[in-house]
TrEMBL record:
<keyword id="KW-0001">2Fe-2S</keyword>
<keyword id="KW-0004">4Fe-4S</keyword>
<dbReference type="GO" id="GO:0016020">
    <property type="term" value="C:membrane"/>
</dbReference>
<dbReference type="GO" id="GO:0008137">
    <property type="term" value="F:NADH dehydrogenase (ubiquinone) activity"/>
</dbReference>
<dbReference type="GO" id="GO:0008901">
    <property type="term" value="F:ferredoxin hydrogenase activity"/>
</dbReference>
<protein>
    <submittedName>
        <fullName>NADH:ubiquinone oxidoreductase, 75kDa subunit, conserved site</fullName>
    </submittedName>
</protein>
<keyword id="KW-0472">Membrane</keyword>
<comment type="similarity">
    <text>Belongs to the complex I 75 kDa subunit family.</text>
</comment>
<keyword id="KW-0408">Iron</keyword>
<dbReference type="GO" id="GO:0051537">
    <property type="term" value="F:2 iron, 2 sulfur cluster binding"/>
</dbReference>
<keyword id="KW-0520">NAD</keyword>
<keyword id="KW-1278">Translocase</keyword>
<dbReference type="GO" id="GO:0051539">
    <property type="term" value="F:4 iron, 4 sulfur cluster binding"/>
</dbReference>
<keyword id="KW-0411">Iron-sulfur</keyword>
<keyword id="KW-0479">Metal-binding</keyword>
<dbReference type="GO" id="GO:0042773">
    <property type="term" value="P:ATP synthesis coupled electron transport"/>
</dbReference>
<dbReference type="GO" id="GO:0005506">
    <property type="term" value="F:iron ion binding"/>
</dbReference>
Length: 391
């Protein structure tokens, strides 16, 4: 199990470095910061049989505050930041088509990145250079936010709660230390570990207070919430690409054709007079089929979203498991519900993201944005699979 090529399967339990045996945060007197991914909000409450209405993102923030974290952030902030960077990168590639290998692949799923690097290394340049939301949030916390609270990055202990097991390996990559003082994200807990820990603390979930996520760096739009499901990253990117190219917002539901649980979806979109062909695949079997079809010249796309887990992160390897029951579609519907009820549905309208550009990053794809928010996928090699002993 520990030899899974995309690091999506593992028997690891990372609660120990975060919590001590008496249940207190094990932080060696550091400032503790936690971020929580979009897909976690739709699954954490399943173990407690809480209703969708009661198990609000604000109640999740309340639970994390009760656990003792000093700052509680929503990774949707960084998902919006990802759209600003990845969307701008896509439009830039479209402008200079002949300089790039096509299609451009999304890069927020570490399981997919490991798959592409190991199976189709000649296509690694197709990957967007944007880091995943987890890693963008980590880099912003240890740079921009550290400056704001006048704290040294090495005195910040940064935890993330993710639906994913591959993210545990992602945060340890040599390219994910933007300050030179240690990983931008120190420890990743998956949803199951988080729920286990809540249970072990005997937290009264029915009495949980609602709390706000911390600001800045804690607020996200509806576009960011749907990152947690297959097609969500593509839809959020198209909403903002359309705006960045035309100066006008589209109908937020205009790109609904990329929604749904089908393993391979495609659409053709008109952006400022250019026909943009997009595809969305989830599950690595579907990713392989799509790549083989591209290589045989049977299909052509400009922009492709790939998620390693069937259904996207809502069905991630670190989410609660219910014997014989597939929850990805139900969780996905919850995310679209939250998107449709969000007062902001475009990443480029996130006021905290706009403020971060104004105060720190300047603009998408700036030097500072490249330093903190982008990565070089060639900078590390896939670990070789251990040789099996002959019997
Ligand atoms: Fe992780 Fe699966 Fe989401 Fe990829 S799709 S980021 S492997 S949970």
């Amino acid at each position: 199990i520990t030899h899974c090529p995309v690091a999506a399967l593992s028997g690891r339990d990372d609660k120990r470095p975060v919590f001590s045996q008496n249940g207190m945060l094990n932080t060696r007197r550091k400032t503790t910061v936690v971020q929580v991914a979009p897909a976690v909000r739709t699954a954490w409450a399943e173990a407690f049989r809480l209703s969708r209405k009661f198990a609000s993102p604000e109640r999740l923030a309340g639970a994390l505050r009760l656990m003792g974290f000093d700052y509680v952030f929503d990774t949707t902030y960084a998902a919006d930041l990802t759209i600003m960077e990845e969307g701008s990168e896509f439009l830039e590639r479209l402008k200079h088509k002949e300089d790039y290998q096509w299609p451009m692949f999304t890069s927020c799923c570490p399981g997919w990145i490991r798959f592409l690097k190991s199976q189709y290394p000649d296509m690694v340049d197709c990957l967007s250079t944007a880091k995943s939301p987890q890693q963008m949030q980590g880099a912003i916390i240890k740079n921009y936010f550290a400056d704001k609270i006048h704290e040294d990055p090495e005195n910040i202990f940064s935890v993330s709660i993710m639906p994913c097991i591959a993210k545990k390996a992602e945060c340890a990559l040599p390219t994910m230390d933007s300050t030179g003082t240690g990983p931008d994200v120190d420890v990743v807990l998956n949803t199951r570990e988080f729920v286990d820990y809540m249970k072990s603390l005997n937290i009264d979930v029915y009495g949980l207070p609602e709390d706000r996520f911390d600001s800045p760096c804690g607020e996200g739009t509806g576009a960011a919430v749907i990152f947690g499901t297959t097609g969500g990253v593509m839809e959020a990117a198209l909403r903002s690409c359309y705006y960045l190219a035309t100066g006008e917002n589209p109908d937020p539901d205009a790109f609904h054709s990329v929604r749904g649980m089908d393993g391979w979806k495609e659409a053709s979109i008109d952006i400022a007079g250019t026909e943009v062909k997009v595809a969305v695949v989830s599950g690595l079997g579907n990713a392989r089929k799509l790549i083989e079809a591209i290589r045989r010249g049977e299909v052509f796309y400009h922009f492709v979203e790939v998620m390693a887990c069937p259904g996207g992160c809502v069905g991630g390897g670190g989410q609660p498991i219910h014997e014989g029951k597939e929850m990805a579609e139900i969780r996905s519907k919850n995310l679209y519900f939250l998107d449709s009820h969000n007062e902001r549905r475009f990443s480029h309208e996130n006021p905290e993201v706009l403020k971060t550009y104004e105060e720190y990053l300047e603009k998408p794809l700036s030097r500072m944005s490249h330093k903190l928010l982008h990565t070089d996928h060639h900078a590390w090699d896939m670990p070789l699979a251990p040789k099996l002993k002959k019997r």
